[in-house]
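Section handout, structural biology tutorial.
Before the tutorial, make sure you can parse a SMILES string by hand: atoms, branches in parentheses, ring closures as digits. In the record below the ligand is adenosine-5'-triphosphate, and the chain has 306 residues. In the tutorial you will relate the predicted structure tokens back to the input. Do not try to memorize them.
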Amino acid sequence: MIVVKELTKRYGSTLALDQLSFEVHPGLVTGFLGPNGAGKSTTLRIILGLHRPTSGEALIDNRRYDRIRRPLHEVGAVLDADAAHPGRTAFHHLACLARSNGIGKARVTAVLEQVGLASVAHKRVGGFSLGMRQRLGIAGALLGDPAVILLDEPVNGLDAAGIRWIRSTLRSLAAEGRTVLLSSHLMSEMAVTVDQVLIIGRGRLLEATSVTEMRDRFERDVLVRSPRAAELAPILTGLGASVTATKDGGLVVVGVDAPTIGDAAVTASIPIHGLTPRSATLEDVYLEMTSEAADYRAAEKEAVRP
Ligand SMILES: Nc1ncnc2c1ncn2[C@@H]1O[C@H](COP(=O)(O)OP(=O)(O)OP(=O)(O)O)[C@@H](O)[C@H]1O
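Predicted structure of the complex:
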């Protein structure tokens, strides 16, 4: 389990993290989302002891990363798909990593097998596609069989097959009881991959919830069109709906679903000309949540332009 407690990080005058707190639980895939510059990489780097927080702390199973004696056995991370030297073979790259952590070659062979790179184990990394390099990164993260796995933007630039592979790999790692945290700035990619989402903007936590909860919460309304809308409205209100008339004579109905509205109209012999359920996509919700933070960054970049 990862616990982030009131993390604040300043880079000079930039407040990258502002009292950020959250928990990441085992057995689930958790997405760490936020627009560019929101503070995701900074947070991951602090969790991994690569940056020092200005204040607050990040704990992995109750310890700071720099207090963990055999880190590769407890935390596996992929921050950059290009971390491996292009002149080395996949096997050599992993073998070096393994040796420095007291891990044997049999484990190297096993993780190469696990990520589907066994057939190219002795090929140079320089000739690998992004998808293969990403698999190699994950193989490195899995070397020590860690309970916690952190990935920074793992699906960035991958093709559909690569994304599908990452998704199923992360799901099975979580199903084994591991804590899996991955960052992304794209909700669309995360919606089908993660169970939980942590959304940040301007270094602050905006939302911590499950994907299912987020979908339910933001299910929107039904747009109803009827030549006798004025008669239909009180009937729907009587069913517990909240009904608002639009300027062009439609009804926006919240609280009852489209079939219920249709049935009520038939019972009252009121003709219906349109019945449109409108649910926000997770992407809409995410963009709405983070728009202020994104605008702030865009404005900031605009301001420094010559
Ligand atoms: N080493 C650094 N020195 C100065 N400022 C930094 C440094 N690292 C990050 N920042 C700033 O801190 C803020 C958070 O950056 P961070 O890279 O953590 O965001 P992010 O959410 O990972 O963004 P992205 O999706 O673009 O990678 C940004 O304003 C960034 O410019």
